[in-house]
Design brief:
The complex is a heterodimer of chains A (369) and B (180). Chain A has 2 domains: 259 residues, no CATH class; 86 residues, no CATH class. In chain A, 44% of the residues lie in helices and 8% in strands. In chain A, strand 1 and strand 2 form a beta hairpin. Chain A is α+β, with helices and mostly antiparallel strands and 369 residues long. Chain B is mostly helical. In chain B, helix 2 runs antiparallel to helix 3. The chains are: A alpha+beta (369), B mainly alpha (180). At the A-B interface, helix 3, helix 4, helix 5, helix 6 and helix 15 of A face helix 3, helix 4 and strand 1 of B.
């Protein structure tokens, strides 16, 4: 997903869940910050680099392709962007080494999602925002895994966009190219993706890199052959999925505010969203590279407040200049704490499922390291 | 990284260092050894690709390509192994181009890292070293032992990186309470 959803749509969902404008701003800032909190940024603000929630392209290119580099990537991308659906999934005749990757495939409504939301219960607004980022990404990043893997994440020439025309859709083959500097061309169906390298653990095979940025566009409807699904065609309907993500965020945040006693998977607050449904659908289906302006307009109408644009620098000085014991109370200090908890929880669950791809998780209380 | 992986990594590094030292001592017979090792490496890569097919890629859409790739690479490996008398100048040119390319990439990356406030000095240093090796290759293109020495330097560097990687901390330790 992009800033339009992680920042503005998260603001709208938080507002509909009952948070105040100021609280919504903190939540949506934190949700968006997940896509920016790299080791490079943390080094700049003198924060702990292992709290990173993303990796810059530059960092990925420099990342060693040994087991430690893969573990580092898996910890970050599985915990924050490609939450695994079923860590105990089975596949007939598959080896353990294959299943370790197969089990990291992201889909909505997995057991780890409930743990993610519950982890934010009673915690800071930063933790709420971070959890909403993870939740939203389970919808956009379905069928890809947060670990470099050709056998899971590769896509081939069979990739078609369903472009609305009249009352129906026409199928148009998507053409991928490797020019990061050139913006995606929606009109002509030209999208950037990563180069194909026939190496299982190549960074090019991380997440949805082989399908480029396309799965992140809210308007995208497409069908393709996931590498892992025995030649079965998957049909992905982003406008529908993004609406589900939005209504699930409203429900999840109502739970976090105490409106419900437990968080249930596959539950959506369609009632709160119903008055705005057609407007939201219109924004989601609009064929554009960036929906920030439309979402911003909607959010401002919704709350009657002015919503400032996302400013990456906003809280950096506060954290950098805070004395060491006070850093945990700074805005980014609370975000870092939430990031540690989420990364710890997901790494721990992957490790306990017998899968070492995210590294070894050690409980530090009462145990000698 | 498990203890077994650490030990394997260190043992491999020790072998690499030993091989590099033997190349420094006897570069003449070392040349044949280098080309032979490259051939064996190609065979290893081919066999590895075949194992990859049987353990993972057979479940992948289009995975049969890995099977064909494995067979072809193994064949090429045998070919390279049996043709180790090619003129040395070609090997030196190959090394020069390789180091030059790596040098350019590293220096560009260091510039990018610097502009984003990240760590850049080590990358810049790597880039300069690669440039220097490329220049050395070109200057000593007529010296028959150059390829062997540069290959040996590369081996020492890789071995050092392996040892450093094996000694890196890999457990995830957090200062909050354990998840239950």
């Amino acid at each position: 997903m992009q800033q339009d959803f992680h920042y503005y749509a998260t603001y709208a969902a938080a507002y509909l869940a009952g948070y105040s404008h100021e609280e919504c701003m903190d939540i949506c800032y934190s949700a968006e910050f997940v896509d920016h909190c790299s080791a490079t940024l943390l080094a700049k603000i003198e924060g702990p680099e292992d709290a990173a929630t993303t990796q810059l392209q530059l960092e990925l290119m420099d990342s060693p392709m040994d087991i430690l580099g893969i573990m580092e990537m898996t910890r970050i991308w599985s915990a924050f962007h490609f939450l695994p659906y079923d860590l105990y999934a089975e596949k007939k005749w598959a080896t353990k080494i294959y299943k370790n990757k197969y089990r990291l495939i992201c889909k909505p409504n997995g057991a780890l999602l409930a743990e993610t939301v519950n982890l934010a219960k009673g915690k800071s607004l930063q933790a709420v925002g971070l959890a909403m980022h993870v939740l939203a990404d389970t919808w956009a990043h379905s069928y890809f895994a947060g670990t470099p893997s050709q056998v899971i994440n590769n896509v081939n020439y069979y990739f078609y966009e369903l472009v609305p025309e009249g009352d129906g859709f026409i199928e148009r083959e998507i053409r991928f190219r490797h020019k990061k500097s050139t913006p995606d061309d929606i009109e002509n169906g030209l999208y950037s993706n990563t180069l194909h390298r026939g190496i299982e653990n190549s960074v090019m095979n991380l997440g949805h890199g082989r399908a480029g940025h396309f799965p992140d566009y809210s308007f995208a409807r497409y069908k393709y052959l996931p590498a892992w699904d025995n030649y079965k065609v998957v049909l992905k309907d982003n406008p529908k999925d993004y609406m589900k993500a939005f209504t699930q965020m409203v429900y999840a945040m109502k739970y976090l505010r105490g409106e419900y006693t437990s968080f249930e998977l596959d539950r959506y607050d369609t009632e709160a969203v119903e008055p705005y449904e057609s407007r939201i659908k219109e924004i989601l289906e609009k064929r554009q590279l960036d929906g920030c302006a439309d979402w911003k307009e909607f959010c401002q109408e919704l709350s009657g407040e002015t919503i400032e644009d996302f400013d990456l620098e906003k809280y950096q000085d506060e954290y950098l200049l805070a004395p060491k014991p006070q850093k945990g109370y700074a805005f980014l200090g609370k975000f870092i704490e939430a990031a540690y908890s989420q990364k710890h929880m997901v790494t721990d669950r992957i490790y306990k499922s017998g899968n070492r791809l995210a590294g070894i998780s050690l409980d530090i209380k009462g145990k000698k390291l | 990284m498990s203890n077994f992986q650490r030990i394997t990594s260190i043992v491999t590094a020790v072998f690499m260092l030993g091989f590099a030292i033997s190349l420094f001592i006897d570069p003449k017979s070392g040349y044949v050894m280098v080309v032979s090792v490259l051939g064996i490496a190609l065979i290893g890569y081919g066999v590895g690709t075949l194992i990859y097919f049987f353990t993972m890629a057979r479940h992948m859409v289009g995975g049969k390509l890995e099977l064909y790739k494995g067979v072809i690479l193994t064949e090429f490996g045998y070919l390279a192994y049996s043709a180790n008398d090619i003129p040395r100048v070609y090997v030196i040119i190959y090394l020069a181009v390789l180091h030059l390319f790596e040098g350019v990439v590293e220096v560009l990356r260091s510039g990018e890292a610097k502009s984003q406030g990240g760590h850049w000095k080590l990358k810049f240093f790597h880039g300069i070293v690669d440039f220097a090796l490329a220049v050395l290759c070109i200057i000593y293109i007529r010296k028959t032992n150059t390829a062997v020495f540069i290959y040996a330097i590369g081996l020492v560097y890789s071995a050092a990186m392996r040892i450093a990687g094996a000694l890196r901390k890999s457990a995830i330790v957090y200062d909050d309470s354990p998840v239950t």
